[in-house]
Amino acid sequence: MKITDQISESLQQGKLEDVKELINKALEDGILPKVILNEGLLEGMSTIGQKFKNNEVFVPDVLIAARAMNGGIEILKPKLVDGDVKPIARAILCTVKGDMHDIGKNLVKMMLEGKGIEVIDLGVNVSEDSIVEAVKKYKPQIVGLSALLTTTMHQQKVVINSLEEAGLRDKVKVMVGGAPVTQTFASKIGADAYTSDAATCSEVAEKFALEV
Amino acid sequence: MSSLKSRERVIRALNHKETDRIPIDIGGIYNLTTLHKDAYKKLQKYLGYNNKITISSMLSQTAFPDEYVRQRFKADCYPLYMPLDKMNINLQWDKDGSSWYKDEWGVKWMCPANGLYYDPVGHPLEGCTLEDIDKFNWPDPNDNSKWLGMGKRAKDLYENTDYALVVNGPFNGGVYVPCQWLMGYEDFFIKMMIEPEIIEAMLEKIVEYHIGQWNLILDEVGKYAQVVVLSDDLGTQNAPLMRPSLYRQLIKPAQAKVVNFIKSKADVKIVYHCDGAISEFISDFIDIGVDAWNPVQVSADGMDDTAKLKKEYGDKLTFWGAGCESQTVLSTKTPEDIREEVKRRINDLGSDGGLILASIHNIQKDVPIENIVAFYDALYEFGTAFYQK
């Protein structure tokens, strides 16, 4: 098995120490950091995302895979040269105002990073004004809004309206998600995309990123 | 069948026997089958009064339904729980309008400005080691201060009302979920995978606390109560939260210990709350001795076919909830749609007992008042008509 495949495999099993060891070995073997990143770490994260989508693995598996990915990236970071890791897009993510739930949002963050998208995580209970400010400041291509509750999902609409008022709506793709959110709701509020799980979200975000 | 008293109706349903009508629960599970205080306020107004609302659960900010509501909608269950004033909550307010408090375990709970509930945001055992668990200042499992007086209340309700008494105990019934409160969700899930011995050690502490507390509670109310509530989340909207094998290895044995203790101590049925897409776990619930399952979240993946659920598990498990899909139907459709939905669920789940009707989770403030009333009225109407066919 190629060493990058071994890295991907170990990442999927969440074996942080193995991932680190294999990366060091790959570097010693002269494999380019960029190749290790793309074909080892990101490939592994993408596979775990697919498995998550198919209910073959679950939240804990994704968390330990992301932990292994981050551990691997720590080693690679000093060795990567500019241009190696240019993110394919930038996204801001948050859970909307009135809602403190962050598991779904955090999973989305991990999956987006696994696709090479830079993520600015604004946290939970984030107001529409803060989101507008962040869009001005970070100029992301994607805005991801999470809501777990039937009572807070309507805040996603408020955010979209605020982006419109600020003249920023056509600058970003707005993606919405969360347990009670549906495609019908997303269409009604004028979101660009709804996805039902973090892996699909990262795929659609990647598509958006490549369109831009 | 001649008319039954509420308590008898609930007991018969839990024993899978037909009843005069299908029993109804509004607020028996004090934090899960009632209404959010704002929805309750609307209901009071509709019914033409405006009394001070008693909050039953701090976390979910739910109302304790009063006698008028119970009578008006023919509810059969009555909750026994620790009143809020025994929690000694020292509520703090941040500048942005969020409020928060720390519980006796040191978990910080926060409700955002204009928010609806309190969620855990500060975790005293995040990143803990085995040694940290050992050293942690665990509350005394044999401290009975919270439950004093519950026995007297239970005796009074038992002797002077017909209600089925439902006991809500420590951690809102959670066996593994408190571990997530103490260490945070992500840390918990990661440790499950890579340091299961830490999870086992913490679960041991939680089980010890449960058993100590249930020992005291059931000494007080065991003679009078019919149902005990336990609760642990195992599903997301579309999948199990964790591998079933991991649940079976780590969590199920802990839950079984609590169930076994409660059943050895008192003649009660256990209703277990678990929402989300959890079809893979239902046989585990039966396995550990759970009698009823709440809330049957029909909007989660694989849970909509209630006729199939009844066919597969109906002889062993009572369905407690299932009244009406809550994420789309109850909150957004018309009263007529709601009546159709209630009728459908009753037809799917009502035969041979084994059904106690309730809302699927608490009714939230976004539900229009005419829908709330149509829903509760439909529970009685179709729950009565079903056995008279």
Mean pLDDT of chain B: 95
Order of strands across the widest beta sheet of chain B?
3-8-9-10-11-12-13
Strand segment tally of chain B: 13
Q: How large is the share of residues in beta strands of chain A?
A: 5-15%
Measured distance between first and last alpha carbons of chain A: 36 Å
Helix fraction of chain B by DSSP (H/I, runs of at least 4):
40-55%
State the secondary-structure class of chain B. Answer: alpha/beta
Question: Mind explaining what this structure looks like?
Answer:
The complex is a heterodimer of chains A (212) and B (389). With 212 residues, chain A is α/β, with parallel strands linked by helices. In chain A, 56% of the residues lie in helices and 11% in strands. Chain A has nine helices and five strands; from the N terminus they run H-H-H-H-E-H-E-H-E-H-E-H-E-H. Chain A has helices at residues 3-12, 16-28, 33-53, 59-76, 103-114, 128-138, 154-165, 183-189, 198-211, and strands at residues 89-95, 117-121, 142-146, 173-177, 193-194. Chain A has a five-stranded parallel beta sheet with strand order 2-1-3-4-5, with helices on both faces. In chain A, strand 3 (142-146), helix 7 (154-165) and strand 4 form a beta-alpha-beta unit. The longest helix of chain A is centred in the first third of the chain and has 21 residues, at 33-53. Chain A starts with a helix and ends with a helix. By secondary structure, chain B is an alpha/beta fold. In chain B, helix 11 links the parallel strand 11 and strand 12 (318-322). Chain B has a single domain, classed as TIM Barrel, CATH 3.20.20. In chain B, strands 3-8-9-10-11-12-13 form a seven-stranded parallel beta sheet. The longest helix of chain B has 26 residues, at 196-221. Helix content of chain B is 42%, strand content 13%. The N and C termini of chain B lie close together (12 Å). In chain B, helix 6 packs across helix 7 (185-194) and helix 13 runs parallel beside helix 14. The relative contact order of chain B is 0.15. Chain B has helices spanning 6-14, 37-47, 67-72, 130-135, 150-160, 177-183, 185-194, 196-221, 244-265, 282-288, 306-313, 326-332, 335-349, 369-385; strands at residues 55-57, 62-63, 77-80, 92-93, 99-102, 108-111, 119-122, 164-168, 227-231, 269-273, 292-294, 318-322, 355-358. Classes of the chains: A alpha/beta (212), B alpha/beta (389).
